[in-house]
């Protein structure tokens, strides 16, 4: 029988993390009589053996609290910044896992954390992972916790931007998070009635966006709300990025490829660096093309902050308690995924390194088109 469990939170914080820590901790202790500790600041805390006991006192009153009581970091086990260098510190983590006589380690995180969890699994640690991120981009799960809260915040922001855009007859471009996927921008855009929604999965034609706004203006709608995912790109940039990515995958002649691959990496880095100003550039293009005034709102980390929604608290509690049950059954090496009303244990190998993007025929995409939203196509 399992007695000792470690928990850590890694990657960007997400509403519902504390609800999940509480669920794992309470179910593990109260239902199954296990002892639970939490490592601070993600994999770094596991490496440095910084931990706290997650007894009843630590787990009380945290259900509604945003962020993570354990702290988090983006440090990866095999590329840990140590003394100015990136080092593989997985062995130190394995050592600390055994130092505490742990029977299981629960990692709460997004796509990057799934890869790290798999690394530790390969080193013999009994890992279980729970999918959290406001981006909703973890593969093999219906949804991630944190997404619903961010969706609510982003939708409310779009609602609020409507009245000021309307009053000033302006275009307001609102940039939403989501990393390289468009779940958040698409969901909030549809829910908030944005007139234009731009997502990474559908590279956009700026002239078609301008045309849609001009048509609105002609029929008396002199304002427009444009919801843009932070990873959205115009077709021209997306084509260059796709070419560079294909070059990186090319397995041909190694010598010839070395230079081409270095060029591809440099190209992708440059695109990434320029991406932070793409909404401002789009605003200038739209002002020129439509004659309307444009403003940019970057919603940023507001989308990740504060108390989780009821749906996220419920989801995190479902996943956390299911995780404790799996530990009790001796299951490990899995991510606890959401499947409809239930949960499912998915081997980490099937999740790590994959990303859930918005499929072209997703119902939200189709609905957006049906209500006349411009997707920049
Ligand atoms: O993965 C969550 C997320 O909020 C992304 O949407 C965003 O691209 C990224 O994290 C921002 O990261 P950071 O908080 O490290 O700047």
Question: Can you describe what's shown?
Answer:
By secondary structure, this protein is α/β, with parallel strands linked by helices. It folds into 2 domains: 4-145 and 308-350, Rossmann fold, CATH 3.40.50.450; 149-304, Phosphofructokinase domain (Rossmann fold). 45% of the residues lie in helices and 17% in strands. It has helices spanning 17-31, 43-48, 56-59, 90-99, 111-122, 147-168, 183-192, 206-218, 235-249, 254-275, 278-290, 310-329, 363-370; strands at 4-9, 35-39, 51-53, 80-82, 85-87, 104-109, 127-131, 170-176, 196-198, 224-229, 293-298, 334-339, 342-347. Strands 3-2-1-6-7-12-13 form a 7-stranded mixed sheet, sandwiched between helices. A 4-stranded parallel sheet has the order 9-10-8-11, sandwiched between helices. The chain has a two-stranded antiparallel sheet with strand order 4-5. A hairpin with a 2-residue loop joins strand 4 (80-82) and strand 5. The radius of gyration is 22 Å and the shape is globular. The model has no long low-confidence stretch (mean pLDDT 96). Bound molecules: 6-O-phosphono-beta-D-fructofuranose.
Q: What order do the helices and strands follow?
A: EHEHEHEEHEHEHEHEHEHHHEHEEH
Give a list of the ligands.
Answer: 6-O-phosphono-beta-D-fructofuranose
Helix content range: 40-55%
Instruction: State which percent range the strand residues make up.
Output: 15-25%
- Would you identify the regions where 5 or more consecutive residues have pLDDT less than 50? none
Which structural category do the helix and sheet elements fall into?
A: alpha/beta
Q: Helical element count? A: 13
- Count of distinct structural domains: 2
N- to C-terminal distance:
56 Å
Described by strand count, sense and barrel closure, the largest sheet is: 7 strands, mixed
CATH class of the largest domain: Alpha Beta
Tally of strands: 13
The main sheet orders its strands as 3-2-1-6-7-12-13
What is the mean pLDDT? 96
Q: Could you say what the CATH architecture of the largest domain is?
A: 3-Layer(aba) Sandwich
Query: What is the approximate shape?
Result: globular
Write down the Rg.
22 Å
**Which fold does the CATH topology of the largest domain refer to?**
Rossmann fold
